[in-house]
Structure formats: structure tokens, C-alpha cells
Write a structure and sequence with these properties.
4-stranded mixed β-sheet; alpha+beta; 8 helices; 309 residues; 21 strands; 3 domains; Uridine Diphospho-n-acetylenolpyruvylglucosamine Reductase, domain 2; Uridine Diphospho-n-acetylenolpyruvylglucosamine Reductase, domain 3; binds flavin-adenine dinucleotide; Uridine Diphospho-n-acetylenolpyruvylglucosamine Reductase, domain 1
Amino acid sequence: MTIKQDKFFPDGNGLAELKGKILFNKPLENLSWLKVGGPAECLYIPYNLEDLSHFLSYLSPKININVFGRLSNVLIRDGGLSGVTILMPPNFLPINILKGGQISAGAGILDKDLSYQAMCAELGGLEFLSSIPGSIGGAVAMNAGCYGKEIKDIILEGKFIDRKGKISILTKKEIGFLYRGTKLSEGKILIEAIFQGKPSKKEKIRSLIEKINSDRETSQPKGYATGGSTFKNPTEKKAWELIKEAGLQGKKIGGAEVSKKHCNFLINNGEATAKDFEDLGNTIIEEVFSCSGITLEWEIRIVGQHLDR
Ligand SMILES: Cc1cc2nc3c(=O)[nH]c(=O)nc-3n(C[C@H](O)[C@H](O)[C@H](O)COP(=O)(O)OP(=O)(O)OC[C@H]3O[C@@H](n4cnc5c(N)ncnc54)[C@H](O)[C@@H]3O)c2cc1C
């Protein structure tokens, strides 16, 4: 891939001031949970909010932006991502314990770290986050949830920056949470969110966290690259049940395989390409439909270009 820096930053003078990392043609495969996918044409890891804001002001308005956290819910196609890929790092903005049981967290903070800090502050309600491998940005964008709780149950508001560097605060209602998504318009980057915790005893929180994590150990595949739940649960039935009933447990395409332990998880046997995962997912959708009449919808977000052959 030939990359011209001028295409991204027509007036590159200010770039030297940036403290974040800018890398061209950067492989993303090893950063993604599925361990597949092509490179980012331009990867930017902001140092802090000021740095991100400067970066956005230097970036050509013609360049498209993708924003991610831990890449635990995305299937990056083998041809990679054009434009700028922003990865929000854990140290972008910290966790702060506020008054009245509220707790704020920067977009790059890991869900499990927020859950742990809430426990230390004797604030319950965030235990479920301890077992989700993403960041706060990804959790808000996905309305992530498990064990009966979702982000929408604990969030008060989110702070966003847009393409023009304008910062806005949106309430839970304005974010418009949906099942594994939001009504947010494209181009809004979450920078920080405020959550409401409930006073609780540290030991009670710790034992709930331990229970959630041990339940996961027994029900989900371990030791494989995976993207977690591949499909959203339809209202009629759980996605894993539909996949199992269609006889797809253990089905393989290339190096991608339907986990025998949890049929809604696709695993990488070490050799998979993004195309293997996409083909396997699409085959599941077809076969589940012909077996049950129900159309599964991807929960994993598929991004990027196919590889030119
Ligand atoms: C083993 C495993 C178990 C999982 N278990 C669960 C589970 O129990 N429940 C659940 O809900 N999910 C689960 N997931 C999926 C995933 O961890 C969550 O969706 C998580 O919230 C994604 O966070 P992330 O930082 O990795 O987001 P990414 O995968 O990096 O991005 C996901 C989406 O969020 C958007 N996004 C990310 N950051 C920002 C930001 N700062 N501003 C705006 N948009 C942003 C991206 O554009 C993308 O559309 C699991 C995944 C794995 C691998």
C-alpha cells in the first residue's frame, strides 16, 4: 500500500506537536480478539483529549475515521481499514470516584478495571463489567451486557467529541440505547462516561465478580481467539440454541469454527482469515433460516475491505 501523508494531513506542520502515536499501514491482526484482519491505512493512538482534538483539527475532512477500543467485537476484513483508525488507549482519561456514588471513566479504560475500581470504592452494580473484555467506549457503543445487566442500566451520561472537535454531553436518553447498540449518529467518539454505582460491601461485590467469572469459565471456550457472541439473540430463542438445532456445532470453514462448548462463539484454530469467519457466519445465517425461519443478525461488527485477489 502506498501512503501519502499529505492525503491525511494537508497542512502537516502541527503534527510534530502530537504526543500520540501515528503509524501507517499498521497490522491490526494481533490487536484484534479474533486475531484476523488486514492493516490500518493510518493508525492513531491518542495521548489524551487535547492530543485527539489537535489530531482531528489537522486531519483532512475527506478522510474517514473508525474508532475502536480493544477490538473485541469487530471482524476486520483481510483488506484492512482505509482512512484513520483511532484506538482509544487505557490511559486516555482516568477513572474518578465522584460524589453520590457516581464514577467516571475514560473511553479507553478496560471494563474490568472500572469494575475493580468500583469494588474498591464499595460501589456495586458494575460487577458484570468484570467479565467483558472490551473498553468503556466499546461498551457504551455496544450497550454491552451480561448476567442480566447492560450499560444502559448503569450509565448516566456520555461525553463525546465529534469530527470538528466539538464536545457534547449526552444523557442516557439522548444516547438512545438499543439491544447491543445505540441510536448515536456516526462520527461521535465517546471520550468519557459517568456511571451510577450503588453502595455495597466490598466482599459482596468481590464474591459476585468471582461468581460471574467462574460461570463464564465453565460455559465459554477458553484458549482460543474468539469475538464472543457472534449473533444477537432473537426474541424467539437464544442464538446458540438455533445454531445447535441447525446441527452447526463444530462446523468449520477454513480456520474458523463454531465452538462445541458455546455455539454462538466462533473460534480461530490459528489459521483463520477474516473471510473464513465472515463466510462461516453467513453460512450459519442461511442454515439457521432454512431450519427455523429465523434470521440471525450479526452482533460482531464487520468492518473494512475485502482483500483484492
Ligand atoms: C471472549 C469475549 C466475551 C464477550 N462477552 C461479552 C458479553 O458478555 N457481553 C457483551 O455485550 N459483549 C461481549 N463481548 C463483546 C465485546 O467485548 C463487547 O461488545 C465490548 O463492549 C466491545 O468493546 P471494545 O472496546 O472491544 O470495542 P471494539 O470491538 O473496539 O468496538 C466495538 C464497537 O464500538 C465502537 N466504539 C469503540 N470505542 C468507541 C468510542 N470510544 N467511541 C465511539 N464508538 C466506539 C466501534 O466503532 C465498534 O463499532 C465479548 C467478546 C469476547 C471476545
